[in-house]
Amino acid sequence: MFTNADKESTEVQTLYGFIDQYSIPGNPGFDPGASSPPLLDHASFEDTTDAITLTNGSVDLDGDGTQDTTYDAFGADVAAAGGWKLEFREGSPDPAERQVTNPTLSFGIATATLFTPSTELCGSEGESRLIGRAYNSGLVLPSGIFGTDTCADSQNCPDGVSEAIGSISLGAGLASSPSIHIGNQEVPGQVTVFVQGSTGEIDREQAMTMGGIRNGEISWQEFRAE
Ligand SMILES: [Ca+2]
Fold this sequence. Notes:
Elements: H1 4-7, E1 14-18, E2 46-47, E3 52-53, E4 58-60, E5 69-70, H2 71-81, E6 83-87, E7 104-106, E8 109-116, E9 127-134, E10 148-149, E11 163-164, E12 167-172, E13 179-181, E14 190-196, E15 202-208
Parallel strand pairs: 2-6
Antiparallel strand pairs: 1-6, 3-4, 4-5, 7-8, 8-9, 9-12, 10-11, 13-14, 14-15
């Protein structure tokens, strides 16, 4: 992003979710007496690039309209593989999408702003979108992170089932790193994500997390001295 050569790069960029091998109790692949944990091979990480989560918990991993696994089963696959990966949008011949701001991890959800530069002189702002993924699977939660939407016809969704949404367009400009606000939410676990565009405007999006957090009084007890 600091030189034109970088800005024009068409190479597909990837977000990786690594599982810290020290963090798994009883990790069979890690001998506590060893000087270092086993090396992870990112090439074998579970690929979530084309994955579509449905509100019934089914997951279409390759986006071909047939459901291949479930949200819970895929989480176990990721744990076994040591991580997940998500390729950003390819651009060729235009520049590829990339992440140039820090992601934010909040209540199990990684949010990030992705930016696609423009090489047009008259459209130099480029475009941004906001994505959210479960930190431990790389998938969109079945409840949706940015809500749900009617399934595409190609998904052959059962009646009453929708597609969980994990990406929203932020329009023109280079958006800032996401900031999370936990307010007095009507829905437990729902937070507000703020991002600021390079043109100054502030975007405010509701996002669902894995937390059952809720601002306010949880319980209260008065002690009296008799
Ligand atoms: Ca499929």
